[in-house]
Design goal:
Strand content: 15-25%
Low-confidence stretches: none
Oligomer: single chain
Distance between the termini: 27 Å
Number of helices: 12
Helix content: 40-55%
Mean pLDDT: 82
Structural class: alpha+beta
């Protein structure tokens, strides 16, 4: 029963660290599926007068900002993607209907939005150039509008009073991070088609800028905003005229968060293990007290202090190693069972876990902690036993 404390401590350590590792893997796969070297920006309201322009002007980014940024950044930018939206609208096919987010963008959209093509193709440059009435729908929209299944490409869907031809079906790869609307429940149009169909003029709600890997978006963020402020006659120190955030900062926040969580899990697990080791040390002290006469007789018969020390330490080690290895094996088995359920649930992109296992180095470290802990737990009782004098032990009642 005393060894159960060590068993429970090592079990908690293995399971907690393994599950934490699984959650980290799940979210890391979501984070890594988006281009971290990206910046998202949009217009706000000015807070300072500048060059005769009034305060509290509303700034709305436009189509020509895309060309300006392309010219400004040159080959440093990998993608420059405008986004606009018509909000949530009812999409119909016959009697089937669903409310979906109607989004307008360009051909680069799906390079920065984690998604998988199920049928057809994405929006392309020809669609943009010819302002085609085509759309790409999310998997949830597809399943509702086409319950019979099959390839829907070439079929018409009705959005409000306008019909669009379906050219593709997509499914999001992650539900943990989104750069806009829910891909699974969206309907994506060429941005100029959306602007023309719903009276948005040349307005663009937000712009995603993805830099090539050798150009750090943190360095270029201020330069990009400065170029936008110059174009719209905004004071260089005005912080509210444009909003922006770069994804590398978000990813860094995730990494720091999980580092803290991992440290907390280790503290909890090691605390449970330490409590078990204290229990073993206490029970060994009681054992030495109860076996005083036995130790005295062995000393009288010629047993050396080293022999008594080795006996007590070995008993402590047997308890801790047996309990610890049992907890370690059971913990790994539990993680394997959880891993099976995770694999079964892998079809759900919202499931925030992947490969909940501990690393081999963690298992070796846990085994090392068990051995050292067993020696420490038995050291004080062994030292007390070694100091018992034979004549005093024989008088013990």
């Amino acid at each position: 029963m005393t060894a159960f404390g060590v068993f429970w401590g090592i079990l908690m350590l293995v399971v907690l660290v393994g599950l934490g590792h699984g959650v980290f893997n799940g979210i890391a796969s979501s984070v890594n599926s988006i281009p971290s070297n990206s910046l998202i920006l949009g217009g706000g309201h000015t807070s300072m007068p500048y060059k005769g322009m009034a305060t509290d002007r509303s700034i709305t980014t436009k189509n020509d900002d895309i060309e300006m940024l392309r010219s400004f950044l040159g080959d440093k930018a990998k993608y420059i993607i405008p986004q606009n939206g018509a909000g949530s609208m009812t999409v119909n096919v016959g009697e089937n209907n669903i409310s979906a987010d109607v989004v307008g963008t360009n051909a680069g959209y799906y390079h920065v939005i984690p998604s998988e093509m199920i049928y057809g193709r994405y929006i392309n440059d020809v669609d943009i150039h010819e302002r085609r009435k085509v759309c790409v729908i999310g998997i949830r929209v597809y399943e509702t509008l086409f319950p019979q299944g099959g390839d829907p490409c070439g079929k018409l869907v009705k959005v409000g009073e306008i019909y669009y031809t379906v050219v593709g079906v997509v499914r999001k790869l992650t539900g943990m991070i989104s750069l806009g609307e829910d891909v699974d429940q969206s309907l994506v149009l060429p941005i100029n088609t959306l602007q023309l169909s719903y009276g948005h003029g040349s307005n663009v709600y937000s712009i995603i800028v993805t830099m090539h890997d050798q150009y750090d978006v943190k360095v270029w963020e201020d330069r990009i905003l400065a170029a936008m402020k110059e174009k719209y006659l905004v004071h260089p120190d005005d912080k509210s005229a444009f909003w922006s955030f770069n994804l590398s900062e978000i990813i860094s926040m995730f990494n720091n968060l999980f580092l803290g969580i991992n440290i907390l899990l280790w503290i909890v697990g090691c605390g449970s293990l330490f409590a078990g080791l204290i229990g073993i040390s206490n029970i060994m002290l009681v054992t030495v007290k109860e076996r005083t006469q036995e130790i005295g007789i062995r000393r009288a018969l010629g047993a050396k202090p080293k022999t008594i020390l080795t006996q007590i330490l070995c008993e402590s080690l047997v308890l801790t190693i047996a309990a610890g290895i049992t907890g370690l094996v059971l913990g790994v088995w539990i993680l394997n069972v959880v891993g099976i359920f995770v694999d079964v649930s892998a079809g759900s992109s919202d499931f925030p876990m992947a490969n909940p296992q501990i690393e081999f180095s963690v298992a070796v470290s846990a085994l090392f902690v068990i051995i050292i802990g067993g020696l420490l737990a038995g050291w004080m009782p062994a030292k007390r036993a070694m100091m018992i004098k034979a004549i005093e032990a024989l008088r013990e009642e």
